[in-house]
Structures are given as structure tokens and as C-alpha cells.
Amino acid sequence: MWISKNCLLPTWVLASVVAADAFIPVSGLHRNSKSIASNFLPLSTTGSCRLKSIETSGKDEDSFAEEIPRGGSSVLKDKPPALPTWKDYRKFAIPCLALWVANPLLSLVDTSFVGLSAGAAESATQLAALGPATTFFDGATYLFAFLNVATTNLYSSAIAQKGEASDQAEAVVTTASRVALRCGIGIMLFLWAFARPLLALYIGTYRIVLYCIGFYSLLDSAVAYVKIRAFSLPTSLLLGVLQSALLGAKDSVTPLIAILYSTVVNLIGDFLLVKIFGMGLRGAAIATLVAQLAATAALLGPARKRLVRDGSLRLWKKKTIVTANGDDSVVGGKAFLGFAAPVLTLILGKLAAFGFMTHSAAAVPGQPTSLACHQILLSLFFFVSPFMEVISQTAQTFIPPYLAPVTDYLGFVVATVVASLASLIPAYFGGILTSDTVVTNSVKPLAKYLWAGAFLTAPVAVAEGILLARRELKFLAGVYL
């Protein structure tokens, strides 16, 4: 039973403290170590015992799959590289967090502008259309997230083996850029051709018609939103792989600057098109489209200077590389395909879960209130998820050169804090996302489920990051089958 409003806030704070305390070992709070990994390593600093990966037998090294390099050098040195310190993690993770939060924040801004700019009745209808549209579009984009995962891992491995200014590292960037642009053009044309029937199937036409007389109006708005956003897909996928390459190079500041441009453009666009000109969903879609184009334009120049020596990404024609020693280890398209099937299985498993939730929300009586509540909760959940995903990204970036242990309770601490803060919004401050009091009251009891979902995302994100860094792709894919 939902606790009374006066008692909820202190109860929430107490629950958060208890949850955090349950996962933080006392020794972890008092240990004055220079690095996370030192919590798990013996005091000796010799090369044979500094890393768990080096302590393993030679047969463990031989068991590593050769199709996709696992990072680092195939020949272990007497002295492994120094382990990253807390400062190294902070310098990378904090800008990376802002980078991960940016896109969900843009969706949350769209939700807020659309929900508050219309009247009470129209607000619920607009939010009901925005929910399936954003989930469907983000899902279509998410299918190509394997490009980002592959780029970060392969680029980290290439610079660990050959150095940043090497043909191998540049080949990862140019191949990823070329594949991303072509995939973006393909999915853009696909959405333009099939957005309407797929959205109708995604929402569940036969159920909506029974509960919502304005179904076709809702569908028209959602289709228009998706088609406008589809124009950004080629540059959006290109932006993703360039960001991933820079993150693989442990540069999280340059992508952050580009995202700041995007955020400013999106805020101005939403204010003008949605608030001032009253364009509703179409205005929100145009604002987000222009914002993504601005981010790509801002990142393209610095990325070309940093990642490729001749400044050319070779988006249409592959560069022929002939090494002096006959080394044929330059990364090509096949290396990216090695990530495709396992990572796509992971992604499709997640998309299926969110798709079923949206379909179920559309089947609940009392539309469009139910879909509007679903959109608010989903936007908040996607906003919270990056706080855990940044730990996954940090693991993927730092682990390839050497297998460093990671603090096992860090994700739970982050999850406890952000889950508590995010779930307070539907519980107390729903009015900042919609002007419809019915939606505000309906979403309030769902806050506890948002807290649970966000909190349980932490161990999943941390485990995924380590498994992806170790290239345990088959095992990871099997989890989502």
C-alpha cells in the first residue's frame, strides 16, 4: 500500500541509506588506496602479482578467441602498465556521464515541453503519442549500438597494441564511420517506408480502438515525429561511432563539448517551436533533429584531427593499407560483424522488454492517461540508466590493455542515489512534466516501481561492461535469449 505523502520522503531517505549500507563493505569506506583495483590486489608490486590476469596460467591466455582481439598485447611484459587511479577514473567518468545523460535529457526536455505547452486534455494526448514514437525510434537506433560497442573495444585494443597514431587504430575509425553512415541511410529509408504500419503494430491497433476514439490522430502524430527524426539517423550513427572512438582513446571531454552544443540548440528549438509557435510533437521532432545535426557538426572537426592523421574519415571509399612488415592485423568490416550478432541479441532482448511494456500500457483502459504515465516513467528511467551505464563504459575503456579488478559495490551506491532522486519526481513533482492532474495523480503510485527498476539496473550494467571488455559476447548474448 502506498505510504501517505507526509511520511514518504523520510521513508525514502531511510530506505536509500539502508540499501547503500547493505552493499558497501566497511573496509571499502576506510581504505586509503590509490586505485580501485588495490582493494583486491596483494601489497606486492612485482609484475607477477599486480594483476589477476597475469597470475593466471599460460593456458588461459591461449584460450582467448583470436577472431576479435581482446585488448592489450599478445605478449605480456615483465612490468605491466600502472593501474588507473581514482583520479583517472573520475577524469574520464564524469564527462562521460554527462555525455550519456545528454540524449535521455533531450527526450525528457521534449516530454516536459510537450506536456506543459498544451492544455490539460491535449497534454495527455500529446504525451500518449510521444511515448510510442520515442520508444520506437530509439529502439530502431539502438539496434545499431553494436557499432558503438565494437568501436570502443576495437579502438582501445588497437591503441594498446600498436599506439594511437597507427594504421590499425585509424582503420577502426574509418571503417566504423563508413559502416555507420551507410547503416544510417538504410534505416532512414526503411523508417520512411514502413513507419506507419510498424507503429500501428507496435502500439496495438485493435486494443487502442476500443479504448481511445482518437487512435488515428495519435498514430498520425507519432508517425510524423518518427519520420522527421529519421532524417538525423545517418549523422546520428556517425556521431555515435566518433564518440565511441574518442572514449576508447580516453577522451570524454571532446564529445561532451559537442553534446553541449546539441543541448543548447534543443532547448532553444523546443522553446520556439513547441512553446511559442505551438507545433507540438512536430516542433519537438524538428528541434531534436537540428540539435543532433549540430552535435555532429561540432564533433566532426575535432574528431578528424584527433583520430586520423590525414584528416579524412573516408566515408565512401576504403583506404588500402600496406604495412612494411606485412602485418595484416588492420581492422576491417569483419571485426565489426563479429560484434553484431551477440550484441544485437542483447539489444533485441532489451527492446522486446520495452516493446511489451509499451504494448501493455496501450492495452490498459482509460487512454490516453495510461500511455502518458508510461511515457513519463520511461523517460525518467532512460534518464537514470546512464548513471549506471557510465560504469559499464569505463570498464570497456580501461580494461582492454589489462584486466583490472573493479569495485563491486560502486554500481549499487550510484544506483541507490539516482534511483531515489528520480523516483521522487513522479511521487512529488509530476507537475513539472505534465499539466494534466489526472496523469499526475496516476503516475504517483508508480514511483516505487521506477525506484526498483533503476536500482536493479546497476549490477546488470556493471556486469555487461566487464563482459563486453573481455569479449565474452556469446555468454552475454545467451543471457538475453
Automatic annotation (TrEMBL):
<dbReference type="InterPro" id="IPR044644">
    <property type="entry name" value="DinF-like"/>
</dbReference>
<dbReference type="InterPro" id="IPR002528">
    <property type="entry name" value="MATE_fam"/>
</dbReference>
<feature type="transmembrane region" description="Helical">
    <location>
        <begin position="369"/>
        <end position="388"/>
    </location>
</feature>
<feature type="transmembrane region" description="Helical">
    <location>
        <begin position="208"/>
        <end position="225"/>
    </location>
</feature>
<keyword id="KW-0472">Membrane</keyword>
<keyword id="KW-0812">Transmembrane</keyword>
<feature type="signal peptide">
    <location>
        <begin position="1"/>
        <end position="22"/>
    </location>
</feature>
<dbReference type="GO" id="GO:0016020">
    <property type="term" value="C:membrane"/>
</dbReference>
<comment type="similarity">
    <text>Belongs to the multi antimicrobial extrusion (MATE) (TC 2.A.66.1) family.</text>
</comment>
<feature type="transmembrane region" description="Helical">
    <location>
        <begin position="449"/>
        <end position="469"/>
    </location>
</feature>
<dbReference type="Pfam" id="PF01554">
    <property type="entry name" value="MatE"/>
</dbReference>
<feature type="transmembrane region" description="Helical">
    <location>
        <begin position="231"/>
        <end position="249"/>
    </location>
</feature>
<feature type="transmembrane region" description="Helical">
    <location>
        <begin position="256"/>
        <end position="277"/>
    </location>
</feature>
<dbReference type="GO" id="GO:0015297">
    <property type="term" value="F:antiporter activity"/>
</dbReference>
<dbReference type="GO" id="GO:0042910">
    <property type="term" value="F:xenobiotic transmembrane transporter activity"/>
</dbReference>
<keyword id="KW-0732">Signal</keyword>
<protein>
    <recommendedName>
        <fullName>MATE efflux family protein</fullName>
    </recommendedName>
</protein>
<feature type="transmembrane region" description="Helical">
    <location>
        <begin position="283"/>
        <end position="303"/>
    </location>
</feature>
<feature type="transmembrane region" description="Helical">
    <location>
        <begin position="335"/>
        <end position="357"/>
    </location>
</feature>
<keyword id="KW-1133">Transmembrane helix</keyword>
<feature type="transmembrane region" description="Helical">
    <location>
        <begin position="409"/>
        <end position="429"/>
    </location>
</feature>
